[in-house]
Amino acid sequence: MPDEIDNAPETKKKKSQPNFLMTLIIVIVVALAISGITSFFIVKVLSSNLVESTKTSSQYSSKIPLRVILLQEGARYPVMLKGGYDVAVIDSLQLDVGSTEARDAINAYRLEILEAIRMIFLNKTRNELSTPSGIELTKKQIINSVNEIIGFTGEREQLGVIKVTLIIMTITNAT
């Protein structure tokens, strides 16, 4: 009988050890499951915000306009004026655009754009290009022409050419 009494506490100790071990395993599994689920939702939320931010950045214009240099400063690019008797020498021509898509399109259509600018100047006289209002009108015509060529008209016009920087060095006689 004394053996039976001694065995009873040992069996209780043996039973309590597996219960402690099972409890410890359950706690660890639950903690891992909770941390895994939490990590999944955090990654899902952050990645959806990243996708949304890239979509909005490509759709809307950036706060700092991108600059496309059509004619580098010092290029001295001659263009004929109306009548063929005068030549305007363009020192620099830069376009500020509102999106990278517009910048890439301008680089793709560079020759067509330069030809459109030549056509604008072919319809100008020396007197029109000698006044500030004439130069501003020419800049607006360049903006409209370039936006039409690259396909940024209507609602997308704000993503196209925003500003033209034009430096006319001189206007001389062609003869």
From TrEMBL:
A Pfam family: FliL
A GO term from the CC aspect: bacterial-type flagellum basal body
UniProt topology in membrane: Single-pass membrane protein
Transmembrane region(s): 20-43
Subcellular location field: Cell membrane
KW Transmembrane (keyword) present: yes
GO BP term (any one): bacterial-type flagellum-dependent cell motility
Superkingdom of origin organism: Bacteria
Entry keyword set: Cell membrane, Cell projection, Chemotaxis, Cilium, Flagellar rotation, Flagellum, Membrane, Transmembrane, Transmembrane helix
Function in brief: Controls the rotational direction of flagella during chemotaxis.
Family (UniProt): Belongs to the FliL family.
Protein's name according to its UniProt entry: Flagellar protein FliL
Species assigned in the record: Defluviitoga tunisiensis
